[in-house]
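*** Query protein ***
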Amino acid sequence: MLRYLIVFAVAGGATYALTPLVRRLAVRIGAVVYPDERRVHTAPLPTIGGTAMFGAFLIAMVVAAVLPGFKPVFTGSSEPFGVIIAAAIIFGVGFLDDLREVSAPAKVAGQVLAACALGLAGVTMFYFRIPFADFVVLSPDLGFLVTVVWVVVMANAVNLIDGLDGLAAGVVAIAAGAFFLYANRLSDAGLLAPDNIGPLIAVIACGVCLGFLPHNFHPSKIIMGDAGALLLGLLMASTTITVGGRTADQFSGQTYFFFAPLVIPFFILGVPMIDTAFAIVRRAMKRASLSQADKEHLHHRLMRLGHGQRRSVIILWAWTAVLSLVVLFPTYTNHGNAIVPAAIAGLAVALYTLFHPGVRRNGQVREVPPAPAPPAAPNGRRGDLRPPARLP
């Protein structure tokens, strides 16, 4: 565990130290986002905060490579190099989009290219588990395809929740930390090979998020931008592929965890996954482009229910933590497995109850009625509604 703590501290410390430098760079090159109808910020904010995350990720990987405990991960394997190349590609796509807006097809093409780099380096799924059924052994070509789809879905899921200060960084920190605990439990049980890179990527993702949070929590000094959100999505995809997609054994003899290695990422990353599904259905019903931004995400709904930015973010952090704890509880206690599906269903019902459109409409019914129209002016037209001129 000491080697993971060292890498975690390096990732967090490097991100914390690099972020102020990146902030000054963003201001100098004009990488600043301004308030508009799709954002909740009220003042200009530097972007490309993901640059600090990417730099810290590289530093943490170098430190891990020189630590003796990680020798099996880096010796005779192309996977670490593949993760670095894929991270560089997807970071570059996001960085370019932060500087000048890139079309949605071009962004997806960049994500597919990054996923292909992962696949070519050997970071692919071997097994795909079907809930309440057996697992499917993936052929090399099908495993490559599933890997590409997984990376694109995960990257866009994280990108979609990056709408409030500290939201994406906090959710991914909790998700990555919980997934590391799960992977470490599998490793202790002998179900995860010593050369598996998944736990290392998870602990680095958690570290860079926690290092970025002090600069990003409301009121934030910088935002991660697409460069950071897409990078975090790729890191989470990489760790779930190498852990969930390569565990063929039943864990602890429990029925639920027979298919948990692949189901667990959906629950640990429950908030962005649910948000992604809502966004796709909502825009399809409106016949709008999937790349079109709006203010209907979970965090926007929370704010319309009366919560401020900080409280909305903390509520969604708590939701992610609860999802993680529900799934991890049987893993560490070896009992309570039967209540997990019921608990997840209960959380889903509570989520729908809180955020379904009827809540939003009911909150709008109590709005103050409009003021009566002003009396007609002598010339027959309504009185002038313009405010009086400001005195010098």
Remarks:
- The longest helix spans residues 2-29.
